[in-house]
From TrEMBL:
Protein name in UniProt: Carbohydrate deacetylase
Alphabetized CDD domains for the sequence: YdjC_like_2
Molecular functions per Gene Ontology: deacetylase activity; hydrolase activity; metal ion binding
Species name: Crocodylus porosus (Saltwater crocodile)
Function: Probably catalyzes the deacetylation of acetylated carbohydrates an important step in the degradation of oligosaccharides.
Family per record: Belongs to the YdjC deacetylase family.
Lineage: Eukaryota, Metazoa, Chordata, Craniata, Vertebrata
């Protein structure tokens, strides 16, 4: 049996969050540890991030943000269903609660997504190669339809669908976090048909929930990749009914994986964030831990041994 050819997109999320995050992500890219980045255009260091991406030729997409900080659409900054009483987005869980209560106007979601895309183009000079959602908001009910419409209208082909094979058996994930991840997974399953109808594609396999922050280790990344490749070889991936990238014929097969990562140097308040300062996760040691793990030569040699080629969405 022929060994599958594996293309791995290692996406550094939250590019533009703060100068120290930008520095860490760029170091990872230059070391060959990250191959793709996702930009927060409402991040405090977004302009700097876009300049760094241009300088170092870093493949860049949009990390659409509806949950943290301030909107970029001028009209929505004063009076909008997307904002809490303090004038900021509702937050990771607050956004989900407001959505469940029917308090969010999807017309405003569309307005903000389009404003972020326009700002992305202004900052980088091109439309994003891919677009996903900060804190996975893009797969939520109602939002998924608007998100898909916007991608189709702008001609953006690629996104992320966070369904991670083997997630249920990751007993190191703390119960409250696992509950959130299982919610993301269910939302993602319910999003597949919507994205497919709009001609949107995503990698065959997603990894990143089980390996986030303190849960990232060389062993966990290797195990996750080995597990998903074994499962993929045995049966087609969750996204294979939709629009996978894998090209299969009698000669060979290419399997595409996205590994979502959050490397960087910890934010130091008050610098950073998306309008209301840096959050706890960005200030924690976990960001640096991810950076050091991803840059470990042992991981690089594992990729070579497994015939894994790092690439970006624009290479697919």
């Amino acid at each position: 049996m022929l060994q599958d050819r594996v293309k791995l997109i290692v996406t550094g999320d939250d590019f533009g969050y703060c100068p120290r995050r930008n520095q860490g992500i760029v170091e990872c890219f230059l070391a060959g540890a990250v191959s793709n980045v996702s930009l927060l255009v409402n991040g405090s260091a977004a302009t700097d991030a876009a300049q760094l991406a241009r300088r170092h030729n870093i493949p860049i997409g949009l990390h659409a943000n509806l949950s943290e900080g301030s909107p970029v659409c001028e009209v929505l900054k004063k009076n909008s269903s997307l904002l809490n009483e303090d004038g900021f987005f509702h937050g990771k869980m607050g956004f989900r609660m407001a959505l469940a209560k029917g308090l969010l106007k999807m017309s405003e979601v569309k307005q903000e997504l389009m404003a972020q895309l326009d700002l992305f183009r202004e900052l980088t000079g091109h439309i994003p190669h891919h677009m996903d959602g900060h804190q996975h908001v893009h797969v939520l009910p109602e939002v998924r339809h608007v998100f898909a419409q916007v991608l189709e209208e702008y001609g953006i082909k690629y996104t992320r669908v966070p369904i991670e094979p083997g997630l249920h058996s990751c007993d190191w994930i703390e119960p409250p976090l696992m509950d959130f991840y299982l919610g993301v997974e269910q939302d993602s399953f319910n999003t597949v048909n919507v994205f497919t109808r709009h001609g949107i594609r995503w990698p065959d396999i997603y990894i990143g929930l089980s390996t986030m922050g303190k849960n990232m280790s060389i062993n966990n990344i290797q195990s996750a990749i080995n597990t998903v490749l074994t499962a993929f070889t045995a049966k087609k991936s969750p996204s294979a009914d939709a629009k996978p990238f894998s090209h299969q014929d009698e000669q060979s097969r290419t399997v595409t994986i996205e590994l979502m990562v959050h490397p960087g140097y910890p934010s130091i308040p008050p610098v950073g964030g998306c309008g209301e300062g840096p959050d706890d996760f960005s200030q924690s040691w976990e960001r640096l831990h991810e950076l050091q793990t991803l840059m470990n030569p042992e991981l690089q040699s594992y990729y070579k041994t497994r015939n894994i080629e790092l690439c970006a969405f624009k290479d697919l």
